[in-house]
């Protein structure tokens, strides 16, 4: 097996580079060491020369697999001693890391890299080097390596090129060996990598015994390297795309890789035994979640980490490939899906799992149906490297922002966990809206509504009354604030009551209400929130299940809806045809639109403009899925089905009646409006029995029709009687807080985020306790408002809406091949790093003052008498402070430690506000003397409230303390209460299974049972003195047990990889 993660994202001769390392070497070439990738159009999977929209094909895979396999064949037959050069101090790299980049510099990543000069002529190059390498016991011998270097290296962009070395067969077996990549004197570099870890050395010694590399030499062309480079580049551009063969109907065994088990099971049923469909379970690797995984100084190289579980999934794919001729990558048709396919190829290449004759293809489909899957297999393509670059740019940006701002937050705002590019902009929207609400000043206004009747009060005929609203007074048209006081309203009421009214005008008009567009990700989340009360995360969870497929009543499995992460409104012609046919059959020809409706939206990223969300089979009615789907899934499917049908129907025709009623001189005019539906059009689908699950219970159609009929009978000049006058007082309302639906809509309008990020952004804000949901409305917590204020003050670009939207546009340009991804990163990092440097030098006292200035009004207004004078010492001033232990925030006296008064505590852990307690206690208060000793029992007040302490403070001694914050009336605490509290924790005994102690502890919210990492709360109706070991064991086995502390170490990645 090749060394773990020895393949780095890069290209050689327009291809994704196979690993050139031997079993006994960590020699690797990194993408950032290959200047050839400065031109993205000369890589495998990169689209053809700029502007032609074609692809170059996967032919380089086979070419480089042959060269790599030639090396692999010689490993098994011969052995050689390669010289290793390196320094004594080595930066170690774990086996679960990889690095990605494409600059022109040599990169040092977890290994020592040195460059050796190489002599070259037109035919052969001989390299000899003598270097020393130290181990724990002795120095290794110095070996000489003679290599014949070929000039036939394929050049991507730039003047650099790769060469292959021919190593003569050595007669002696070396104890250690490495690989060396060489660079000629005209621009080629020899890179040597050393990993001196003891475990790695042992592995190398075991694997490399009796092995060497032997490479055939090829005569170089008698041309200058520069001429050769330019000529080969010309040949590359003139090659044109290579047509990939269709993968269906099956003639040979193929391995299809998808993302989930459910999807794999459904697709396997469509394709049969000649295809083996395996899941990758999402990403097989990701950026290491620690500092330094993206390295701006190393041309933005990246360190990848492979989860332990991913090795198992990769092993399954590797085993399946042993007898297959096709590897088909069928991950989702978006940026993330493209990246997953690329990661899988990289990992399989480094594991030598791709034979030289295997065919690698990428297929995409937008719905999981048999016809869609087979059509995709008939049109394979290559990996779109532009999409991969956009993925890398996005991951690098998010990492650089998160891993540079988050540590600053931890130091400047303890308890605030993280910040992110999209997350921080969304948080700023919520906090800015809260600021608008705080600053809002209500304004009073009045409206006047009257009841009009066709017949007089004494008439025997029961006439129909209708409401009318005052729109004109004193021959002047009224606006919202024309009547601003009770006095004005009553004066107008008096004049209306004494006037006689008649119909002065009657107008009828018709409006066409067009059908809604089909769903995209954002509108589906909004409608599900408004109509079904689903959160965005829950909506996407249900939609994912509908997309991946379910087992139908006829024992067949099928995906029910198309791909759910989309911002495109268009639908396939075949789907539109089926929808229109269903409309005609179910509702009639008159309800079908005259022509097929086509919806278009200006999408910033054409690569991700998938179809709108629709049912895969419009004739699969919701009623057919009863018993197949659960209640919520049924509601969501019904929502999608009805919207899809409606989008191909005729507009609804609404008839509106406007009736103006005035006095004799028409100085006072009142208006009554009423409407009715003349033609249902698309609204017919929402009254269908199929959508009963989502129908509104309110039925007002009959009342509207009756009112419309009465108003339509009235003519100009008909007298009307006044039934009554109602004065209504109103106040302007502050802007409403965002719901999940309205926030998603706002993010979409501003261009912040993408369909795949809306739900996760909302979830992160809630998980970080920056935002809470109350009555389906998003409320920012004080912690979230502090984070937003800090970022706005020190990182204005991160929270600026236009900047975040522009960055999304730039990332879309990378996807389209219009922007170079590392140039984008370089430009942003130059500015962002300066913000980080300035923010890191800010003292925490400056942060406290900034936050006090920002939120002072809301913080201090809640204090008694709104006074900022310390009520304890009467000298100090109450200020906003961060606790010295970094666990919370409080309002206290600025004379600390002389005065320890705390007016309000804002806990950093849960943002719980504790109402200020009246501090009438002279503390420390002596409660009494401990009978068992001569120590005093004291009641004291600390940053987090009152506590009792056994003994006085003295140097070198830590007295026993326990909190009494759970006791409401602190003044009532007696010496007996204090001694009872101080006796905890109490060991009840040892657990019978492992002999570990079971302890009864006093926690913040009451008593708990602790056993190792398990915590079980004691019910409030149970007295702690009644807790025995048996009762504690019973509580520890209940469902309320929680785990705490650090979990056990996961199996090492090396062990999982060694199993392969």
From TrEMBL:
It comes from Carya illinoinensis (Pecan). This is DNA topoisomerase. Belongs to the type IA topoisomerase family. Keywords: Magnesium, Metal-binding, Zinc, Zinc-finger. It comes from the Eukaryota. Its EC number is 5.6.2.1. Signal peptide: none annotated. Residues 98-241 are annotated as: Disordered. InterPro entries: Topo_IA, Topo_IA_2, Topo_IA_AS, Topo_IA_cen, Topo_IA_DNA-bd_dom, Topo_IA_Znf, TopoI_bac-type, Topoisom_1_IA. GO terms for cellular component: chromosome. Residues 253-368 form the Toprim domain. Residues 384-836 form the Topo IA-type catalytic domain. One of its GO terms (molecular function) is DNA binding. Residues 131-144 have a biased composition (Basic residues). One of its GO terms (biological process) is DNA topological change. Residues 111-130, 157-167, 223-240 have a biased composition (Polar residues). It catalyses: ATP-independent breakage of single-stranded DNA, followed by passage and rejoining.
């Amino acid at each position: 097996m090749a060394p773990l993660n020895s393949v780095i994202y890069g290209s050689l001769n327009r291809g994704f580079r196979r690993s050139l390392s031997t079993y006994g070497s960590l020699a690797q070439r990194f993408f950032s060491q290959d200047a050839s990738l400065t031109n993205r159009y000369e890589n495998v999977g990169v689209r053809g020369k700029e502007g032609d929209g074609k692809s170059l094909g996967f032919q380089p895979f086979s070419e480089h697999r042959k060269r790599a396999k030639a090396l692999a064949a010689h490993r098994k037959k011969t052995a050689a001693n390669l010289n290793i050069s390196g320094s004594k101090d080595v930066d170690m790299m774990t086996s679960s890391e990889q690095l990605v980049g494409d600059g022109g510099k040599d990169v040092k990543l977890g290994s020592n890299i040195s460059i050796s000069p190489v002599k070259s002529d037109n035919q052969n190059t001989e390299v000899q080097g003598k270097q020393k390498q130290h181990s724990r016991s002795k120095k290794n011998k110095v070996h000489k390596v003679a290599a014949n270097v070929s000039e036939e290296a394929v050049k991507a962009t730039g003047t650099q090129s790769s060469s292959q070395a021919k190593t003569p067969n050595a007669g002696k077996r070396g104890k250690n060996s490495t690989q060396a990549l060489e660079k000629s004197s005209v621009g080629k570099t020899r890179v040597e990598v050393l990993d001196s870890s003891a475990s790695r050395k042992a592995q190398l010694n075991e694997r490399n015994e009796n092995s060497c590399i032997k490479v055939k030499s090829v005569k170089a062309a008698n041309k200058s390297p520069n001429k050769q480079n330019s000529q080969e580049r010309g040949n590359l551009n003139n090659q044109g795309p290579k047509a990939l063969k269709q993968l269906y109907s099956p003639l040979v065994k193929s391995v299809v890789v998808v993302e989930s088990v459910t999807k794999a099971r459904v697709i396997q049923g469509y394709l049969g035994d000649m295809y083996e469909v395996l899941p990758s379970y999402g990403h097989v690797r990701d950026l290491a979640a620690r500092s330094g995984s993206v390295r701006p100084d190393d041309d933005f190289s990246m360190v990848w980490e492979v989860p332990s579980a991913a090795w198992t999934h990769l092993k399954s794919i590797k085993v399946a490939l042993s007898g297959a001729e096709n590897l088909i990558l069928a991950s989702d048709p978006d940026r993330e899906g493209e990246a997953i396919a690329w990661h899988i190829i990289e990992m399989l290449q480094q594991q030598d799992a791709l034979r030289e004759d295997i065919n690698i293809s990428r297929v995409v489909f937008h719905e999981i149906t048999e016809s869609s899957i087979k059509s995709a297999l008939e049109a394979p393509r290559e990996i779109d490297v532009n999409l991969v670059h956009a993925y890398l740019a996005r991951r690098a940006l998010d990492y650089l922002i998160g891993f540079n701002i988050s540590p600053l937050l931890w130091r400047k705002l303890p308890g605030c966990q993280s910040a992110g590019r999209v997350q921080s902009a969304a948080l700023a929207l919520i906090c800015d809206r809260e600021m608008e609400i705080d600053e809002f000043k209500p304004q009073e206004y009045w409206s006047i509504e009257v009841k009009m009747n066709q017949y007089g009060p004494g008439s025997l005929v029961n006439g129909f009354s209708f409401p009318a609203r005052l729109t004109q007074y004193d021959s002047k048209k009224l606006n919202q604030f024309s009547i601003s006081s009770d006095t004005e309203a009553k004066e107008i009421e008096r004049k209306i009551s004494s006037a006689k009214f008649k119909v002065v005008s009657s107008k009828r008009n018709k409006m066409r209400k067009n059908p809604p567009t089909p769903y995209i990700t954002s509108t589906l989340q909004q409608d599900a929130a408004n109509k079904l009360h689903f959160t965005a995360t829950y909506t996407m969870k249900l939609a994912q299940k509908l997309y991946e497929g379910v087992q139908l009543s006829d024992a067949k499995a099928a995906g029910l809806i198309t791909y759910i992460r989309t911002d495109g409104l268009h639908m396939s012609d075949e789907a539109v045809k089926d929808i229109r046919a269903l409309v005609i059959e179910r509702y009639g020809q008159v309800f079908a639109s005259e022509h097929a409706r086509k919806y278009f939206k200006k999408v910033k990223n054409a690569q991700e403009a998938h179809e709108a969300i629709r049912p895969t089979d419009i004739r699969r009615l919701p009623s057919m899925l009863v018993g197949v789907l659960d209640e919520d899934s049924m509601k969501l499917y019904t929502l999608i089905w009805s919207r899809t049908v409606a989008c191909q129907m005729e507009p609804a025709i609404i008839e509106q009646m406007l009736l103006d009623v005035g006095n004799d001189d028409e100085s006072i005019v009142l208006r009554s409006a009423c409407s009715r539906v003349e033609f249902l059009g698309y609204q017919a689908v929402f009254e269908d029995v199929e959508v009963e699950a989502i129908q509104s219970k309110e039925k007002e159609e009959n009342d509207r029709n009756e009112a419309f009929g009465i108003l339509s009978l009235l003519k100009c000049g008909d007298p009307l009687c006044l039934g009554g006058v109602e004065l209504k007082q109103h106040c302007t309302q502050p802007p409403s807080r965002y719901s999940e639906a309205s926030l998603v809509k706002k993010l979409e309008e501003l261009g912040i985020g993408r369909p795949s990020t809306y739900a996760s952004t909302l979830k992160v804000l809630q998980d970080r306790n920056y935002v809470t949901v109350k009555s389906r409305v998003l409320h920012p917590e004080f912690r979230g408002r502090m984070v937003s204020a800090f970022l706005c003050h020190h990182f204005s670009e991160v929270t600026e809406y236009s900047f975040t939207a522009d960055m999304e546009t730039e990332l879309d340009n990378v996807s389209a091949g219009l922007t170079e991804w590392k140039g984008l990163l370089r430009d942003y990092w130059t500015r962002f790093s300066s913000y980080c440097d300035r923010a890191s030098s800010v003292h925490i006292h400056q942060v406290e003052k900034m936050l006090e200035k920002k939120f002072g009004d809301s913080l201090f207004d809640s204090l008694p008498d709104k006074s900022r004078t310390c009520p304890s010492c009467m000298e100090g001033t109450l200020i906003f402070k961060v606790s010295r232990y970094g666990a919370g925030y409080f309002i206290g006296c600025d004379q600390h430690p002389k005065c320890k008064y705390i007016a309000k505590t804002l806990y950093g852990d849960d943002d719980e506000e504790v109402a200020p307690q009246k501090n009438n206690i002279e503390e420390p208060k002596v409660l009494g003397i401990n009978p068992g000793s001569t120590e005093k029992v004291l009641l004291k007040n600390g940053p987090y409230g009152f506590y009792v302490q056994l003994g006085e403070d003295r140097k070198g001694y830590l007295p026993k303390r326990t909190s009494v914050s759970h006791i409401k009336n602190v003044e009532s605490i007696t010496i007996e209460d204090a001694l009872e509290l101080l006796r905890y924790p109490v060991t009840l005994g040892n657990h019978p299974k492992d002999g570990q102690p079971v302890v009864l502890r006093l926690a913040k919210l009451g008593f708990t049972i602790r056993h190792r990492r398990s915590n079980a709360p004691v019910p409030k109706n149970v007295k702690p003195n009644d807790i025995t070991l048996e009762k504690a064991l019973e509580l520890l086995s209940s469902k309320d047990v929680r785990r705490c502390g650090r979990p056990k170490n996961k199996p090492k990645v090396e062990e999982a990889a060694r199993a392969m």
